[in-house]
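re: the backbone from monday

yeah here it is again, tokenized this time
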């Protein structure tokens, strides 16, 4: 069994993760901080952006793969994957630029939560529908 749609979104999200990882590394190098954030606000924010991405993406990708294994219409899988991808990009962009509230952070979290909720509900519906 293959999961090409999940593989597509997982690959794009992996590229985002690599970008966020290098953002942390670059700030560490410029600030010469090896461990922790050293009280550097820019580094603390970069670490938080990276960590936040890592907190939400794995579970949502698992939900995406589970849904794909149940063979719904492709647009359903893409709806969840797109919401996750754009939600994480918007959130990272907004948090990277501002410590405070921004429309990008808010929109990003809303899209992320909607993606998780949509995928969880779609899985439950498909399980009920199939059984």
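seq for it, each position gets an aa:
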């Amino acid at each position: 069994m293959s999961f090409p749609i999940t593989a597509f979104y997982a690959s794009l999200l992996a590229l985002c993760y690599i970008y966020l990882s290098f953002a942390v590394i670059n700030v560490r190098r410029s600030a010469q901080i090896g461990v922790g954030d050293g009280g550097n606000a820019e580094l603390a924010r970069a670490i938080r952006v990276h960590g936040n991405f890592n907190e939400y993406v794995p579970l949502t990708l698992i939900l995406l793969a589970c849904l794909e294994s149940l063979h719904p219409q492709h647009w359903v899988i893409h709806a969840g994957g797109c919401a996750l991808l754009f939600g994480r990009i918007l959130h990272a962009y907004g948090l990277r630029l501002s410590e405070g509230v921004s429309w990008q952070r808010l929109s990003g979290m809303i899209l992320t939560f909607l993606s998780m909720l949509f995928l969880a509900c779609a899985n439950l519906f498909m399980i009920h529908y199939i059984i």
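The chain has one domain: 4-130. The domain at 4-130 is CATH 1.20.120.550 (Four Helix Bundle (Hemerythrin (Met), subunit A)).
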